[in-house]
Amino acid sequence: MKKSTVYATTMLSLSCCFFFLLSFVFKNINQYWITGILLLLIFLTALLLGFDRSKKRFEKDIILILLISCITYYVILYLSGLFFGFNYNVYNLNLISIIKNILPTIFMIILCEVCRFMINTKIKENRFLLCLSFVFFFLVDTSIVFSKIHFHELATYIDSISLYIIPSISKNVLLTYLTTKSSYKTQITYRLIKEIPIFLVPIVPNLGNYLQAICELSIPVIVLILINNFYKKLPINQENIKSRKSHKLLYVCTLLVLGVVISLTSGLFSHQAIVIASGSMQPHLDRGDVVIVKKLKEEEKRDLNIGDILVFKREDKIIVHRIYKKYNSGKEVFFETKGDHNDNPDGYLIEVSDIVGTTHIKIKYIGLPTVYLYDLFNE
């Protein structure tokens, strides 16, 4: 047995055992432990096994496939929000919080993927060691989560498998595959695109845990298939195939983006995006804010109460004002509304048939270009 094989087996075996003990036995693992172990592995790998230069061949093509695949994934994901609804992001979106969330994540991604690349390029011909490497990075990915879970019931096992284990397996299979085909830059690119946006977006689709887990499982599988097909077809005519695939994916991505924009603004689905064009709801809603409107059934409209933000039609315009008073007249229900910034109520009653829906979710200022264009053409 080669010395390099012995070194790699020893390092990975000890690291796996260490992570397993910290996660499942002592339940005492954190980012500092993970960072320390990864830094130690990078140092030992460079010292004992050496460091191969990045594989530049087809790197740009793979990164393009990753970019287009992930953008398409996000487009479809947010398109699904038209059916399932949206929730506010749980992460704080002020500048300091964003920096605090993003910088450690980026550092950990780079550290992990450089370590994965350094190890896997030295053991890629040994399937057993590649499997051992996969297990190690799977533990790196899930150790903190598992250290906080107490496995006392069958439901906990099922939830853990479906929500954490299977998506992590799918992700790490792709990342391991990428180390055998390209440089660490492709792995880092994929993880940055997949893991950073959650710290930046104000709203997220309300898919539920299990549907979200299916999405997280599917995207690495799809990307792996696309990259594998790319390599399979290269010998036929490398340049033409690369060009055709890139253009097709760009067209699909563009069409999906347009589809999302049209669907969000058309009102064809259960949720609709509306731009706030006036300052009547300040300070709660400013000009240029976009609100996500949830359409209501007739019974839900009748259950609205004072203080709810109402979206309704009035003289071919859509107005977003707060319910000021509610009147019950037998079977009929009427609402009086008022803008938060206005001194007086609107002076008319809203019937149930006039109501579009209600809104609880806003995205600050992204509709300002629309407002400026409207003002420009209506001067």
List the helices and strands and how they pair.
Elements: H1 3-25, H2 31-48, H3 59-84, E1 86-88, H4 95-123, H5 127-147, H6 154-181, H7 184-195, E2 203-205, H8 209-233, H9 238-266, E3 271-275, E4 290-295, H10 298-302, E5 309-314, E6 317-329, E7 332-338, E8 349-351, E9 355-363, H11 368-377
Antiparallel strand pairs: 1-2, 3-4, 4-9, 5-6, 5-9, 6-7, 7-8
Helix pairs in contact: 1-2, 1-5, 2-4, 3-7, 3-8, 3-9, 4-5, 4-6, 4-7, 5-6, 6-8
Summarize the structure.
With 379 residues, this protein is an alpha+beta fold.
How would you describe this structure to a colleague?
The protein has helices at 3-25, 31-48, 59-84, 95-123, 127-147, 154-181, 184-195, 209-233, 238-266, 298-302, 368-377, and strands spanning 86-88, 203-205, 271-275, 290-295, 309-314, 317-329, 332-338, 349-351, 355-363. It has 379 residues and is α+β, with helices and mostly antiparallel strands. The chain has 2 domains: 3-265, no CATH class; 271-377, Umud Fragment, subunit A. Helix 3 packs parallel to helix 7 (184-195). The longest helix has 29 residues, at 95-123. The N and C termini lie far apart (81 Å).
